[in-house]
Write a structure and sequence with these properties.
By secondary structure, this protein is α/β, with parallel strands linked by helices. The protein is built from eight helices and six strands. Strands 3-2-1-4-5-6 form a six-stranded parallel beta sheet, with helices on both faces.
Length: 245
């Protein structure tokens, strides 16, 4: 048994609850776009686009899914997919290419403004602050949250956006990239996340310790894998591991 040197964290649904924020962000940035376009075109004395909210949002989703199929290496780069889908949709409804590019970028800026309005678990900041005294910390996420705009950013000198690497989890590349930047071998690192397939399996296969955040789970756990119900229970797992060492 070797002592831990580094701990990597998933973000969404690990350090905060993400479902409500994503719903607000998904709907909010698109509604903002349509309302801004109405005002912009009115100033130019142009008719509104024939693009309603419900129909437009559904079409936007379909275009994102189509882009993910057409360019599979970008399937985890959600910002890229959203930009391409919005640009395509706006052009299809009559905007010039340059206007479509500008308004798609503006909509994504609004997306990111809303996206970072997460509320970390009350214990998260204190937990990370305490852990940072003994371990190197890193974030590994498939999401497209701008971590530098988020209050917990200071605790993660290394932050990996897996989609931007064109290798979303469970691909091992984001884990290996984080370990390389931390200069730590897998056996001396732990990954913490809520997804069995995207967090636990790749970390464990690389030789890392893995902590699975799940309210329920009765299946036998492989070696080096631990289950907790909430991230606030993480210190107990670490203490147990360090005592074994």
């Amino acid at each position: 048994m070797v002592s831990l040197q580094a701990i990597t964290f998933d973000l969404d649904d690990t350090l905060w609850d993400n479902q409500g924020v994503m719903l607000k962000t998904e709907e909010g940035h698109y509604r903002w776009l349509l309302e801004a376009l109405v005002a912009w075109r009115a100033k130019r004395q142009e008719a509104p686009l024939a693009l309603g909210y419900e129909q437009g949002l559904a079409d936007y989703l379909q275009r994102r899914q189509a882009w993910a199929q057409q360019v599979p290496e970008r399937r985890g780069d959600f910002t890229w997919l959203r930009l391409r889908a919005l640009e395509e949709q706006l052009e299809a409804h009559g905007l010039t290419r340059s206007a479509a590019l500008l308004w798609a970028a503006a909509a994504m800026n609004e997306f990111h403004r809303l996206r970072v309005q997460v509320t970390p678990h009350p214990e998260a900041a204190g937990l990370l602050s305490t852990l940072a005294e003994c371990y190197q910390l890193a974030a590994i996420t498939n999401g497209n949250i701008h971590l530098k705009r988020q209050p917990l950013a200071a605790y993660f000198p290394v932050a990996i956006a897996a989609g931007e690497l064109l290798a979303p989890k469970p691909d091992p590349k984001p884990f290996l990239t984080a370990l390389e930047r931390l200069n730590v071998v897998p056996q001396r690192a732990m990954h913490v996340g809520d997804s069995w397939q995207e967090d636990v399996v790749p970390a464990q296969q690389l030789g890392m310790h893995a902590v699975w955040i799940a309210q329920q789970g009765d299946q036998p756990l492989p070696a080096r894998v631990h289950r907790i119900a909430h991230v606030k229970e993480l210190p107990e797992v670490i203490q147990w591991l360090e005592k074994r060492h």
